[in-house]
Amino acid sequence: MVAKVSSKWYSSRLHTEVLSVRYGHAGTPVLLFPTAGGDAEECERFLMIRVLTPLIEAGRIKVFSCDSVAGRAWISSEHSPAYKARVQNVFNDFLIEELIPAIRSDCRSSDVEVISAGASIGAYNSLVALCRNPQIFRMAICMSGTYDLARWMQGQHTSDLHLVSPLHFVPYLQENSPQLALLRRRLVLLPTGEGRWEAPDESWKVANVLGKRGIPNRVDLWGEGYDHDWITWREMLPKYLDEFA
Q1: In degrees rounded to 5, what are phi and psi of residue 70?
Q2: Where are the domains of the chain?
Q3: What CATH number does the domain located at 4-244 have?
Q4: What is the tens place of the pLDDT at every residue in 92-121?
Q5: Whole-model pTM over 0.90
């Protein structure tokens, strides 16, 4: 049985309790972001941990997950677009100042590099985590992603939106910036199905933005037999982690 450790703490940045879960005992840390409405244990309930068990038990990966605080804000009808973008920006601060230090402490390494991964909104969070923080994340596995946040912004373009949208900020990274230099040594995988509810154009849009800045990326089209669903993602993620972890 896969070792599981749960931690919950109050984040003064997010003004809420956040659950974090770790599966496994050794290996490359993988931060798996939930879908929009998900929590830290979503990956377990939808059997993702089961299909990753061979890699986990072999000590090749340790999987970490946390509640989708920002994702829930995006799909909420109770908040303004500006508020949603602000929560996403603060979520990045939580990630860097709270969650990553906890992961590195668990791994007993102050500088271990992390693989980010996720599906749907989790794919977006995986992408923005890497693009904002290439000094921490060495690659992103972005499955069936939703990346254009404008659909939730009602025509608004706030400073927070710019900071949390790779489609917006990556084109403006300074050519000689350390951030861009590091991103050019990272890898973004953009696998997507072409079946029901999928939107491959979203992945191609990201690939175009990254490619223009010399950031390595790859779009993998899985075909019409793969829907926007956990069945697809349970096949994708073990394949890529087996290849790259």
Answers
A1: -70, -40
A2: 4-244
A3: 3.40.50.1820
A4: 999 999 999 999 999 999 999 999 999 999
A5: yes
